[in-house]
Amino acid sequence: MSAPGQTGRIRPWSRLRTRMAVSYVAVTLVIVLLLETVVVAAVWYTVTRSPLVGYWAMHMAGQTAQVFALQAALEADGSSLNPNTTFEPDQASSLATRREDDPPQLTFFNLDVPYLEPGASAPNRPVFALLIDQDEQVVASSYPDRYPISMEAAEAAPQEIALIRDALAGTSNGAVRETADGMLATVAQTVWSEDEEPLGAVYIQSPAGGPPETNVLADVAAVVIPSGLLWLCFMLPIGMVFGVLSTRGLIKRIERLAGA
Predict the structure, then answer these.
(1) Per-residue model confidence as pLDDT tens digits over 23-48
(2) pLDDT tens digits, residue range 165-179?
(3) Is residue 163 classed exposed, middle or buried when 0-12, 13-18 and 19+ CB atoms within 10 A define those classes?
(4) Contact at 8 Å (CB) between 65 and 202?
(5) DSSP codes of every residue in 97-166
(6) Measured between alpha carbons, how far is 201 from 211 in angstroms, rounded to an integer?
(7) What is the pLDDT of residues 223-254, one digit of tens each?
(8) Phi, psi dihedrals of residue 209, rounded to the nearest 5°
(9) Helices first, then strands: H and E counts in the chain
(10) Residue 123: which of 143, 152, 139 has the closest Cα?
């Protein structure tokens, strides 16, 4: 009499075992996705909004400004900057961090200041450099369309004119500011003469982090959703097997209890 009853209970216990295994997979997947969302959001904030990104950008801009200042000092005639100095590459008096024939190097630690030719399209937040003389006028510009030669420094960088004037007086410094265009890193480096007198200043402005209109939810979802599908494909067979094995003993105890 007991055998038929036990045979009739096989299918319900099998369904219960499957449900428990599926619930195990679902709970594990949710926990993994929650942890991944937290990690991705933290990394996104660190890369796009953290002040550390601004100070790192300022540090790289400062290193590039030092290279430009040394080159401008070599091009100077001793008492004033060379008016033929330019950021245009492959020129006799061009300022550049590297030449085209230089071997490849790690550019992550170097800020690349591209020369934006007149008429060329520029990004919304371009990196640019200016060479400014003691009369607070632009001598050389990497973005001549927006910052032409002989432009007043107060007009080119009104919010950073104090920084530029300090560099013209011999005090190099940098700043990180939050503006309507996002976080910006600015540096003003003094150009010294052979007699250790200030000849001018190199001013560099570089964006730091992501643009202000970045959608946080969209960026995080763009990473979490595809990875969630990968996690599901990876965890489903493994989770089902582990769930069945881990619930087998519990189901057997319930079967014995029901049979009693």
Answers:
(1) 777 777 788 778 877 777 777 776 66
(2) 999 999 999 998 887
(3) buried
(4) yes
(5) SS-TTSPP--GGGS-------TT----SS--EEEEEETTSBEEEES-TTTS-TT-BHHHH-GGGHHHHHH
(6) 28
(7) 667 777 777 677 777 766 776 676 666 667 77
(8) 80, -170
(9) 6, 5
(10) 143
Joined tokens for residue 199 = 């000849």
> What is the full DSSP assignment across 214-231?
--HHHHHHHHHHHHHHHH
Beta carbons within 8 Å of 105's beta carbon, 6+ residues apart = 98
Pairing of strands 138-141, 173-179: unpaired
Please tell me the predicted confidence (pLDDT) of residue 230.
Answer: 77
Phi and psi (nearest 5°) for 203?
A: -115, 130
Beta bridge mates, 200: 133, 191
232 CB burial (10 A radius; 0-12, 13-18, 19+) = middle
Q: Please tell me whether the overall predicted TM-score, pTM, comes out greater than 0.70 for this model.
A: no
Which two structure tokens, joined as six digits, stand for 1? 């009499």
Angle value at C-alpha 138, between 135 and 141, nearest 5 degrees: 160
Amino acid at 57: A
Q: Are residues 177 and 161 in contact, defined by beta-carbon separation less than 8 angstroms? A: no
Q: Decide: 139 and 132 in contact? Cβ < 8 Å.
A: yes
- Phi, then psi, of 207 in degrees rounded to 5: -70, 145
Question: How many angstroms from the chain centroid is the CA of residue 216?
Answer: 14
